[in-house]
Amino acid sequence: MNVSLEANKSLVRRYYEQMWNRWDLSLVDELIGEGITFRGSPGVTVRGREGFRDYVLAVRRAFPDFHNRVEELLAEGDKVVARLTYSGTHQGELFGIEPTGRRVSYAGVAIFRIESGRIVEGWVLGDVHGLIRQLSGEAGRPA
What we know:
By secondary structure, the protein is of the alpha+beta class. It has a single domain, classed as Nuclear Transport Factor 2, Chain: A, CATH 3.10.450. It has four helices and six strands; from the N terminus they run ααββαββββα. The protein has helices spanning 3-20, 28-31, 48-62, 128-135; strands at residues 32-39, 45-47, 67-76, 79-89, 103-115, 118-126. It has a six-stranded mixed β-sheet with strand order 2-1-6-5-4-3, with helices on both faces.
């Protein structure tokens, strides 16, 4: 496989395992492009590293133990797609829902564009409907 494709996949794996799962924001300057455009699952779009840091901190406030499990990584050209399982305990307001203390787990897909060894675009689509159902206590009920 192309070395740059493997390097891009390694970058995304590091992004999740070291930066997100360990809340190591010291890695932002190394892994994230200065002018990043990032759209997260909650439908929030941020620009630039500072906007991205603020987004990560907002997720941490809602889910202090938020964890990203990388299920699969696919790479082509300058893009990497990650299939993920997200989990955490709801400890802060999210979608207007006050903290419930509920443990949640939901699926997601993220698409990244890599440039010069940094993530410069990210677009994440999580199962927000499933997440809200879990937060509202409806996870066991039929849709």
